[in-house]
Amino acid sequence: MILTWLIWKVRQAFTRFGTREPKRVCVLYICGMGDILCDTFFFEELRQKWPQAELSACFPAAFCELQENYFAFDTYIPHRGYWQTLIQLWKLRADLIIIPGWLLKNSILAIFSNAKAILGYINDLSFSNRLLNSFTLEAAGIAVHRYQQDMRQCHLSQRPAAIAAALDMPQFDPQALEPKRHQPAQDYAVFHAGARFEGRRWPEDRFAAVADWLLESGRVKKVYLIGDKDDIRINRRIRSFAKSKEIVDKAGKLSLQESYLLIAKARLFVGNDSGPMHIAALAGVPTLGLMGPSYPQISGPLGKQSRAAFHEFECSGCDQRGCNYKYRCIKAITIPEVQDIINEMWKEQ
């Protein structure tokens, strides 16, 4: 990693400084689904900043079609392998590559591309920490002030804030966002009980109890359980705990785009801290995020129509790779608490 930083310094030294408005701008962000979707508002600001420029995006191939539902770039470079992506970046001949979040793979691809300028979080020396605390803004071929942004103090959607400031783009308040509904609401709810880390997973029996309550109270006529093939086991347990037969398991049966379409038409979404939660919130769906170790103000669902259930402990914000307290943070969220939050959300619909 130190070697990458040194190569970046060489790239800086030998990249010519330019002042022309870019005609080809590429956002290079090979990362998680939620991180990309939360940057939707930054992408919209880029379009307003350079309305005549060709905006391209280099995202993981699996996310390109999904992301296009939120903001349509002019062209996409689907990342399937580093060599293939680097070739596509060379063919693009971008005037400017923007890197909204620090990840070593993004930095390496940008450094070795033929872009005339690079702007983003390149040389953060805290990369030895699993949870990056601060990102350092740097640039090659474009003049900016070096700026260090503490990622513990901002939401995922605010990660590009230093980039926006360097480009004289407006800042926004994530608490004030009101995402528009992508699809009219239908009479069902969608639950996502999976998550990458165990500490983010609310217990299956509690999901089952809330699903039964929603159906018995007549708020919805059906509850869909979604997820990938790794969530099949989780969803089966939910159905085994539940009384209602109107709970439909879709785990492993839907593509990412099909999952989006199901979520976007839901009257309500309830899920753990993961990508589907952000899919729902940014599609304007009333979303309840069940936050375990992660702070809602950092990675919670966006929009005034969204809510988060969260209990803070002295260990909150941990690296989520293990737990000495038997995942007490996610288990502290109770069924009555979730029901009360849903009742409040229902009154606002």
Overall description:
With 349 residues, the protein is of the alpha/beta class. The chain has 2 domains: 2-7 and 21-171, Glycogen Phosphorylase B (Rossmann fold); 188-347, Glycogen Phosphorylase B (Rossmann fold, 3-Layer(aba) Sandwich), CATH 3.40.50.2000. Helices cover 35% and strands 17% of the residues. The strands form 2 sheets. Strands 3-2-1-4-5-6-7 form a 7-stranded mixed beta sheet. The chain has a 6-stranded parallel beta sheet with strand order 10-9-8-11-12-13, with helices on both faces. α6 links the parallel β4 and β5. The longest helix is centred in the first third of the chain and has 13 residues, at 2-14. The protein is elongated. The termini are far apart. The relative contact order is 0.12.
